[in-house]
Design a protein that fits this description.
- The chain has about 325 residues and is an alpha/beta fold.
- The strands form 2 sheets. An 11-stranded mixed sheet has the order 1-8-2-3-7-4-6-5-9-10-11, with helices on both faces.
- The protein is globular and about 60 Å long.
- Bound molecules: adenosine monophosphate (AMP) and magnesium ion.
- The site of magnesium ion has 3 residues, from loops.
Length: about 325
Amino acid sequence: MEILSPSDANLRRAGACLAAGGIVGLPTETVYGLGADAFNTRAVARVFEAKARPSFDPLIVHIASLDQVETVAQGGGRVARTLMERLWPGPLTLILPRRPEVPDLVTSGLPTVAVRLPAHPLARAIIAYSGTAVAAPSANPFGYLSPTRAEHVARLLGDKVDLIVDGGPCGVGVESTVLDVTVDPPVVLRPGGMAVEAIEELIGRVRLGGTGSAPPVPVSPGQLDSHYAPRTPLFLFREGELAERRVEAVARGRGAGRAAALLFDEAARRRLGAAAAGFAEIRVLSPSGDTVEAAAELFARLHELDALGLDSIWAERAPDRSLGRAINDRLHKASVK
Ligand code: AMP
Ligand code: MG
């Protein structure tokens, strides 16, 4: 495995590696992806193997330009068109009717395909240089925290990947919003980096299908109840409840050991009051309470806390607005139920 700086020569090299059946860790605005040529089943199989990802889990196909969508999907309709034209490139994945050429391994045999045009210029350049569409899940072992830095990818996957392009920290920091536009009204299968409010402003009401309602056979692994999890047990509390619960636990002799608090904003830190002394580490996602900044910080702070070898992480929910929904969805999935 080699980590490359994002020079034009290296972006070409990463594209050529994909075209030759290699697997590449690449930066996107959401999280780092582990990419393979979507039409090369051997390369895609290597991605599953590197992630130890169950094969029921379909991958998102990434494209470099709007017109490339036709190489993997067909139809789509007016709503899909509107979203592509207004919100692409960006952290929005659309579920569309697939083209038959897309391998079953990519779609898990579904009649649909998940497609995204990323906003990150390096991701688009690499895909364009590859000359193909790139199937890419997040570049982490299945179920573990998503990577938002090149070093996360190197640490988590190491020699299982051929190349990693270092594009610095991911700007959005949580995965894309996944929206199924093959049904009416469209359904949000996973809240993510594109605020649902921005989608509804363009196409009207959508249904929220993902969060916390895992069907027995997941339609979308974003719907699995446990996912995106650190190794350190993470406990999730409602807004404003962390201080009281910590004091209670310590009084009852539970919650012993070294714990970290993961808080949304400075107001949450103030609410902790004297209970702050009960935590070995405290992290605040966005001092000013900006959901966009908090989302960008989420996985980096979780990686950092997980590496400290603490006994538990105590997290408090973000407000349920804008990207706060994606943050709460990831925290819920990361938590001990
Ligand atoms: P990840 O690759 O980790 O970002 O996760 C991709 C998300 O998109 C998962 O929740 C997938 O299940 C979902 N997805 C991909 N393809 C489809 C599809 N055809 N139908 C429904 N969900 C999909
Ligand atoms: Mg993932």
